[in-house]
Specification:
By secondary structure, the chain is mainly α. The protein has four helices and no strands. The relative contact order is 0.25.
């Protein structure tokens, strides 16, 4: 089972898994720091920015498994 779902808000993902910030940046989704990140889910954010949702989800879940320093 994946740790991160498309329905999670971007803010929730970053708060729970701070190591995912690099993944969001890599995919060109810079809005993790803006106010809308508290309300917009990962899928909505990716679609709004023309980002491949499935590729983003794969990378986010891979990062979530990595230990934080």
């Amino acid at each position: 089972m994946d740790a991160i779902s498309k329905e999670m808000t971007i803010g929730e993902v970053v708060q729970t898994y701070p190591q995912t910030i690099e993944v969001f940046l890599k995919h060109g989704l810079m809005c993790f720091g803006c106010a809308i990140a508290r309300f917009e889910n990962v899928e909505q954010g990716a679609q709004a920015h023309g980002i491949n949702v499935e590729a983003l989800m794969t990378d986010l879940n891979a990062a979530a498994l990595q230990p934080t320093n």
